[in-house]
Structures are given as structure tokens and as C-alpha cells.
Amino acid sequence: MQTIILFACLVSTYLMVIAKRMPALIMGFRYQSFFLFLVTLLMAIAERRIDLYSIAGLLLALKVVLIPGLLYRIVARIKANENLGLFLNTQLSLLCALGFTCLSWVFSARLLAPGNVLVTTTLTIAFFMVLAGIFLMIFRMTALAQIIGLLVMENGMFLLASTVSGGMPFFVEIAIFFDVFVSVLIMGFFVYRINKLFTHVDVNKLSRLKG
Amino acid sequence: MGYFLFDPLSVFFLSVIALVSLPSAVYSIGYLKGEASGRKTALAWLILILFLGAMGMVVTVNNTILFLVAWELMSLVSYFLVVFDTKHEKSVQAGTIYIVMTHIGTAFLIAAFLIMFKYAHSFDFSAIKNACASMPAGTKNTVFLLLLTGFGTKAGIVPLHIWLPYAHPQAPSHASSIMSGVMIKTAIYGIIRFVIFILGAHCLWWGIMVLVLAVISCLVGVIYALMEHDIKKLLAYHSVENIGIILLGVGLAMFFLSLNMPYLAVFSMIAGLYHLINHAIFKGLLFLCAGSVYKATGTRDIEKLGGLIKNMPYTAAYFLIGAMAISALPPFNGFVSEWLTLQAFFLGAFSVTGSAKVFLGVLGAMLALTGGLAAACFVKAFGITFLARPRSHYAVNALEVPFSMKAGMFFLAALTLAFGLGGAAVIKILSHVAAAATGIDITAMKFSVNNAVISPQAGYDIYLSVPLLALVLGALGIMGFAVYKLSGKGKTITYTTWDCGYYRLSPRNEYTATAFSKPFRIAFSFFLRPYRKTQKIRDSFYHIRSFKYETHTTKVFKKYIYDPALAMIFRSAKSMRRIQPGSIHLYLGYIFASVLLLIIFINRF
């Protein structure tokens, strides 16, 4: 069961990598967070831990409902061109993503003792999510893609922590959630301001500001 | 004493600092009046006190970390002194050159100290001294070169002197006097303390290298000084020259130490230390006099001065004393120490064999040449500045400086004479300092007897008594004057100067500094590479309305060493700019690429 959900996570990340428009990207993020929520919930049920339940609840509330909702609103507000602006077209991006998956697999297999396939798979996917997040940040032009890239990285980190060390301490986890939420708020606000001042959110063009 | 060390060497340097700083501080009371606002004057005093404290710390700490802290503090505070006169844009530029150069020097020092720490596992001088005995020869050579470069930058050894003629003239005059008189000497302290005292000068080539660099500094310094018409810059170039003379003594001591000739080593060290204290005194005096001239006239360009001896008799007299001392004329102090250095060369040349004989002989000759050129330079500096008639309105309205400034100059002028006449006593004290620095037992050696200096190597006894010399010179002078008076040629006749029938002689017809230095410019043209620009504006073929003549010399070191190096740095900075386009994506990409590389790299193990 867990493996299936993890693969769903993987597929949703692929979806984000090949997304061309902002709503598609946010949707992909929503799916990814949702599957992450399912993984956490399963873990909570299996281990009967109250704190994991509450973390799963926070995941659902913040990353599935609130943050994507907020991002949708920003997209609607700035009324900008909905295109993400790709430095790398979708086919090549997908190819890259597959390459990263491979690399993560090699990396995880090296890192962990052979035999435990489930843990290795989880680690691979978690690591791939981090890589995909940074990939999104680099190869998409708009500032919004960078926010989402960061969130994807954060998701990857979450998964990474829960596989490698059985989850971070409860309070740390809570703190991270609020951190992420606040940073999204702030960055969203910035994107809005950038758009207002420069009538676009193309980060690539921000380089003109330098002296 | 914890972190401090008061051996004879440290105490000697402390007293040099005190000797020059006190009159300079008194001088600054008058000098700063009217120059700056009250708060700025207070700031100047604060900086001055910090500066003196830092210098005092440099020569007394017994720990490399504290030494570096004090060294850096000294550099920074002196930087603020250089840029103190914020009115001139030149000050800022000079300060930048200074601070860049001094930090390059400090970097070399840090490297040397770290290597020393690696062997000693301690920052303490005595522990390092013990550990240096077991240091491999190659490492020792590296440490020596690092130390020489580091301290050489501060001392202003050619070709690291580049900052000195910019920075020293730009500081207020009392500060230039301390910087030139004392601060660059702390570098000599460093060389003596770290190279001779701690590392131990065992290799012959160390001494030879120091000697060669020193003699180059001497000649380059004095030749550039001859070409210079800014009086403070001229003095700054003379600092390069005199650091060379001091290092001749120190280098000679290293040379003899490695040849195991203790008598001569101590003697050369005495010569070097004696010239060090002398240079501090007369260079301090000359900078104070130059400051007085600047304060009175508002210009440092000697081509615009002249005739100041009538308006400023005291300053002129003090400047003359300083000039005679720096030109090594008896009975002033510069004479004694240069005589000692020359003696050290000659005694050395008699005591060694083979090519070393020629080497020392040539160096002695070069030192003599330096002395001669310095005298020529000060004939120019004194003659053009103080004699003849004023060449511009700057010099016409000059007034003698206030009492506090005269007092500072008087004190140093008196010291100049005292250190000349009392040479024998000074040498007696310095022999203990030199013994402590070189680690040689001197109880069996004699360097002075009853007011006479004697050279120590048996078989070549040479005596010098400065008071006697002064007496003879004085008597000869009086006799000459008496003969002149008695022969009746002393009658004064007032008449117009013969001017070949021109009838319109003006100060513009006077001898200029440029003209005075022309023979030297031609003689040293292989090094100075002079070039000139002329511009004629004609009314007709036969009549020229105006004629413009400019002559310049090529700054060889700047043009062939520093300019290419700077250009290279800028070029590489420009190519570095290409990876810094300001794109966020690219920066993220760099991070990503390095993460990927690390992952691939980890798979290799």
C-alpha cells in the first residue's frame, strides 16, 4: 500500500516537471502533498502515534488546502501570463527527471544496506523530490515556480527525514510547517509586488536591476 | 611579564619611538592649530596616541599572535593618519595604495608565523626560537623569504617601496615624521627579531640577498629623491635610501654571522642600529622642517619656494642641520653611522677571501656613491627652498612658525648633534643591544675608548673621534674666516648682478630644481628613462611667443611590475564576472550542479 502511494508521489512530481502552466504546477503540488499526507497517515496508523496524526493533519490543512489555495489566488490576482516560461522543454525536462530518479536510486542504494527495498524506494523518491524542486527553481522563469520549487524541496526533505530518522521531533516539524507557511505568504506578497512594479514575474529579467 | 618582553632590543626600539615621537607630538600642537577644527584636532591626538601605543606593542610583545594584532593596529591607525587630510583627493588614493600594500605584507607575515607555529606548537617567541633549531633547511628558507617580503613591504625595500612616496607625504607632517622616522623601523625590528634572533641567520645567501636588496634600495631611493621636487616626497624617497643603509648594516651582520665572525657581526649590527636611530632623528627633524615650510607657505613644491632663509631663519637652520646629518657630514650623527657601515664593509673585505672580497668592496663603493648623491640632493633641497629669492607668491609671505613647532625641531636638531659628538658612548650602549640581538658574548670585545670609536678587528685598528674632528673643522672654519677678514676682501659692494645686458632679471631666471638635477637625470638615464615634451607657440618663424617644456621620468617599478600586475588582476576579475551575471536561475544552477557532482563523486568511493 505504502509503495503504491509513494509511486503516486513520484508520478505527481513528474507531472509538475512537465507542467507548462501555473495552475497545472499548483495542481501537481497539491497532489504531491496529498499523497505525502497519505503516507504520513499510514505511518501514524501503523505506529499508533498521536503526534504523527497531528502532523498529517497539519500537512493536509497547510500543504493541500491553504498553500495551493493561496497560490491560486496569487495567480488569479496578478492576472499575468499563465505560462511558466520554460528554459528546458517538457520532453527534455522529463528526461532530466528520469535521470535524477536513476541517480537518486544509485545514491540511496549506496547509502543504505541492501535488502530493505521499501526504505530504499522511499529514500530514492524523497531525494528525487529534492532534486526536482531545485530543478523547477532553476529551469522555470517565473518567481511563482521558484516558490513551488522550494515547497517541493521541503516536501522531499520531510519524506527524507521520516525515512531516514523516523521523522523529526514533533515541535521541529510544527515549526517547519509554520516556517513554510509564512515564507510562502511573504514570497507570495513579493511576487505580487514584483508583478505590480515590473508588470511581470519573470525572474530572468530581474537581472537588469543589477548595477 | 606575561605577554611582554623587555630585552635590550625591545628597549632600544622603545626608546627610539619615544625619542622621535615626543618632539613630534609637541610640534603637532602648533602644526594642527588652524589646520583643523577642534574636534578633528582631538581626533588627531587620539590617533597619534593609538599609533604610538601600537608601535610600542609591536616591539615589546613576545607572542606572534599579539605581534600580528599590534602590527595590524599600527597599520590601520597609520592608514587613518595618511587619509587624515580629507580635503585632498590624493590622500585617499595614497591611503588606498598604502593599505593594500601593507596588507599584502601582513599576509606574508601570517604565512610565516603559521609555518613557525606548525613546528613550535606555540606562539611564544622563546618556544619558536627553540623549535627553529629543528626546522628543516628548506622550510627555514621559505620562512625567511616570507618574513623578508612581509617586513620588506613595511620597510619600503625596493621594489616593495611603491606605497612609501605616496603615503608618507600625505599624512600631517608630525605623523610623516613618526611614520618615516619610526614606523618603518618596526619592520627592521621584525627582521632582526625574527630572522636573526629567532630563525638564526645560518645561510650565507640570506645575508647576501638582504645586502643586495639593501644596496638597490639605497641607490633607487636616492636617485628618485634627486628627481623629486615635492619636498615631502623627496624626504620619503630618502627614507627608502636610509632603510637601505640600515639594512646594509643588518645584512652585513647576517653575512658575518653565517661566516662565524662574531666581532664583525656585532660591529655591523651596531652600525645598522646606530644608523637606525640616527635616521629616526634626522628624518623626523627634516619632516618637521618640511611641515613648517608647508604650514608657512601652503605648498610643498620646492620650485615655487626660495628665499625662505630670510623669513624663516630657525626652520632654515634646523633644516640645514638635518640635511648635513642625512648627507653624512661631520660632526652630525649621520656621519658616524655611515662611517661605521663603511668601516664594516672595509674590515669585512679585508677579512674574507675570494669573490666575497669584491662583493663587499663593491657594496662599500655603492654606499659611498649613495652618500654623495644624498649630499647633492640636499644641496638641491636646501638651496632651492631656502636660498636665492622667492620664486612665487607662496614664498614671499612666509612667516616663521610658532614656538611649539620650533621647540620640537630644536630638540631633534640638538639630538642630531649629540648623537654625532657622543658617538663613542652610544656605541657602547648599542654593543649590548647588538649582542642581545645576535646572541654573541661581547665581554671580550671593545668598541669605544675615551670618546673615540675603534673598529674591533685586531690588526686593522681604526680610530675616530668626532669631538676632535668637530674641533678641527671649527678651528679651520674660524681660521679661514679670519684670513678672509684680514686680507681685506670682506668689504661689501652693492651693485646689480651682471646679467649679460638683459636688464630684466627676475626670480624666473633663478636656478631651478629641475635644472639642478639634470646632470643626474642624464647620468642615470638608463634607469630613469627621462622623456620630455616641448610645445612652441610662434608668432612667426623668427619669433616664439611662448615655449613650454616638460620633462618626466619613467617610474620603472610602477610601469613594469605594478601596472602589469594590476592589469592582470583586473582582467581576471573581468573574466570572473562572466560567471556572475546576476541571474537567480544560474546561481541556483551552480548549487544544483555542485550537489549533483557531489552525489556522483560519493559513488566513486
Structure description:
The complex is a heterodimer of chains A (211) and B (605). In chain A, 80% of the residues lie in helices and 0% in strands. With 211 residues, chain A is mainly alpha-helical. Chain A has one domain. The mean pLDDT of chain A is 83. Chain B folds into four domains: 1-198; 201-489 and 510-523; 524-554, no CATH class; 557-602. In chain B, a hairpin with an 8-residue loop joins β2 (452-454) and β3 (463-464). Chain B is built from 24 helices and five strands. Chain B has helices at 8-32, 38-60, 64-82, 89-120, 125-132, 137-155, 164-170, 173-199, 204-227, 231-258, 262-297, 308-311, 313-326, 333-351, 355-386, 393-396, 403-421, 423-438, 466-486, 513-516, 518-523, 525-528, 556-577, 584-602, and strands at 448-449, 452-454, 463-464, 530-538, 544-553. The mean pLDDT of chain B is 88. Chain B has a three-stranded antiparallel beta sheet with strand order 1-2-3, with helices on one face. Classes of the chains: A mainly alpha (211), B mainly alpha (605). At the A-B interface, α4 and α5 of A face α24 of B.
How would you sum up this structure in a few lines?
With 211 residues, chain A is mainly α. Chain A has helices spanning 2-18, 22-47, 50-78, 90-111, 117-139, 143-164, 170-198.
User: In one word, what is the shape of chain B?
Assistant: globular
Query: What is the residue-averaged pLDDT of chain A?
Result: 83
Task: Please tell me the overall pLDDT of chain B.
Answer: 88
Structural class by helix and strand composition of chain B: mainly alpha
Biggest interface, chains and residues, is: A-B, 19 and 15 residues
- Tell me the number of strands of chain B: 5
Number of domains of chain B: 4
C-alpha-based Rg of chain B, rounded:
27 Å
State the helicity of chain B in percent bands.
Answer: over 70%
Give the count of helical stretches of chain B. 24
Shape category of chain A: globular
H/E element order of chain B: HHHHHHHHHHHHHHHHHHEEEHHHHEEHH
Percent of residues in β-strands of chain B: under 5%
The tally of domains of chain A stands at 1
Rg of chain A (C-alpha, Å): 17 Å
How far is the first residue's CA from the last residue's CA of chain A?
55 Å
Quote the beta fraction of chain A: under 5%
The tally of helices of chain A reads 7
Taking the sheet with the most strands of chain B, its summary is: 3 strands, antiparallel
